[in-house]
Design a protein that fits this description.
- This protein is an alpha/beta fold.
- 31% of the residues lie in helices and 22% in strands.
- It has a nine-stranded mixed beta sheet with strand order 10-1-13-15-14-16-19-17-18, with helices on both faces.
- The longest helix has 20 residues.
- The radius of gyration is 25 Å and the shape is globular.
Length: 513
């Protein structure tokens, strides 16, 4: 009897050991037999010169999308409901700033690309106008904030400070640009300028926004035309005392001459495949895996230093590594499906403002209220191969799952690196978090922003040859393993009480999460 009891006890203990996803027996399961040659081959292709930096809307970007779609098909993944392919087509508008502009405020003259940068404009001539200061230039009906209340800006040039009442960090500033133009145009302003009061070097800002820029095409072209009619730009400085004069109600004469921006519509795709869960009840819930596959392109478009010999920004780290991690997770999860269904989403347009993920979040191919979690992978590179970094650690109740996802591969989790960089809101996970979906971003091991990282970030030397492929294999396994743990988990992730996205989550799920 004792021997029989000991036998069953031993069997039960072995079953418990195997069932724990963090222990070695799990690594022997066939779906986790990823090979270094496989991940290396994917990365070498996606970051090859042939794809010319994968800039959104480019031929190389389109080739990368088709490469991913063909692998989704080979894995046996389903297309999104109602579609016969894996593509979510997105229309973008590319706009090139005016080549010539001159602004006069009182006796001070500003020239385009000097201490002024007009980003978008119709051809305009304002011979005589007055200046108006409108605070942040922001209106929010929900909160009642209205910087235009009591102001007459019709036929005038409006000056505003950057940001919104909710934030003045660079990302918040950039996200608010289009809406600010629209608000000023709706109120009859002739032009809108923001004051340069952000923590980004002026030369970098001019380099980035002084070239062709992309935005999502507006479904209402008449509205888009209305916004374009007014010149919109930035001023590095203002003549001393001008704002004070305007606030006192004194007139400050202003004139402007400006050539027009050029615009054209281009297209790019999010790539989306579905792995149906194997549990009859839980398969109606979705874990969203995401990574952006676009990069910054070539030459001046790339934004970094380049030479005649090498002008291609290959983007092996940002975000070739994340794209391959997404691809390998799709492969292993397709071989043995988890309990919940999995959406595998490779997004375009991240480098131009998280636009591909924002589009999906606004027009999801599967209901967001059924999407219980977003596990995003993106990064600028790595400086410590003993870690994977998790941005959003401590916010969604998934810390144990993150640790368990990394530990079988000899890696540790480094939580929330470089908090001063506000990394959570700088990648695609933020698009889903803003809608209320609990989200984190996994990246290669970053402990802080240093020279090791910046040597490759958005530089032409960010090529596959520079990647540690032994570490990269561990990273891919970690992402896939973490995805399985979340998809098989008993409890759904949930925003930590008091998190800034908690209210959005309650609204999205109606208190059911």
């Amino acid at each position: 009897m004792k021997k029989l009891l000991l036998f069953f006890l031993t069997c039960w203990m072995m079953r418990s050991v195997v069932a724990q996803p963090g222990l070695k027996p799990f690594l022997e399961m066939p779906e986790f037999r990823l090979e270094k040659d496989d991940v290396e081959a994917h990365l070498r292709f996606l970051s090859s010169d042939a794809l010319m930096g994968r800039r959104t809307g480019s031929t190389g970007n389109d080739i990368a999308a088709h490469y991913l779609a063909e692998h989704f098909k080979a894995f046996g993944m389903s297309t999104p409901p109602g579609q016969d392919d894996y593509f979510q087509k997105i229309a973008f508008v590319t706009s090139t700033p005016p080549s010539m502009a001159q602004l006069k405020i009182g006796k001070t003259t500003y020239e385009q690309s000097g201490d002024m940068l007009i980003i978008v404009s119709e051809a305009s001539e304002i011979k005589k106008s007055n200046l108006v200061f409108a605070g942040l230039g922001w209106v929010d009906e929900k909160s009642g904030h209205d910087d235009y209340k009591g102001l007459d800006v019709k036929g005038k040039v409006v000056i505003v400070e950057p940001g919104t009442p909710d934030g003045k960090d660079p990302l918040a500033v950039f996200r608010a640009m289009k809406r600010k133009r629209q608000l000023a145009a709706e109120r009859g302003a002739l032009a809108l300028f923001e004051l340069y009061q952000i923590s980004v070097p002026w030369q970098f800002f001019k380099s980035y926004f002084g070239k062709a820029n992309m935005s999502l095409a507006s479904p209402d072209e008449d509205e888009a035309k209305k916004v374009r009619q007014i010149p919109y730009g930035w001023l590095r400085t203002l003549p001393k005392g001008v704002i004070e004069k305007v606030k006192e109600g004194k007139k400050v004469k202003t004139s402007l001459q400006c050539s027009g921006s050029s615009r054209k519509t281009i297209y790019s795709n999010n790539v989306c495949g579905i792995i149906e869960g194997r549990d009859e009840k839980l398969k109606d819930e979705f874990v969203l895996l995401s990574a952006h596959y676009d990069h910054v392109g070539t030459g001046k478009d790339g934004g970094g230093a380049f030479t005649k010999e090498d002008s291609i920004f290959n983007g092996a780290r940002d975000n070739g590594m994340g794209t391959v991690a997404l691809l390998t997770a799709a492969k292993v999860l397709s071989k043995k499906r988890p309990l919940r269904s999995v959406i595998v989403l490779a997004v375009t347009g991240e480098e131009i403002g998280l636009l591909g993920s924002a589009y999906y979040a606004k027009s999801p191919l599967l209901p967001l209220e059924k999407t219980i979690f977003n596990l995003n992978t993106d990064g600028a590179g790595y400086n410590d191969t003993s870690y994977v970094s998790v941005v959003g650690y401590g916010r969604t109740g998934t810390d144990e799952q993150m640790d368990a996802g990394a530990s079988p591969f000899g890696l540790k989790v480094f939580p929330n690196p470089a908090p001063e960089q506000n990394l959570f809101d700088r990648s695609d996970n933020a698009s889903f978090a803003r809608k209320g979906v609990p989200a984190v971003n996994i990246s290669p091991g970053v402990t802080g922003f240093d020279q090791t990282l910046m040597r490759y970030y958005h530089q032409v030397v960010d090529e596959a040859d520079s990647v540690d492929f032994d570490y990269f294999l561990k990273y891919c396994k970690t992402f896939a393993h973490t995805a399985r743990i979340i998809a098989d988990g008993k409890d759904k992730p949930k925003w930590k009480e008091g998190d800034k996205y908690e209210a959005a989550g309650e609204e999205l799920y109606g208190g059911d999460n």
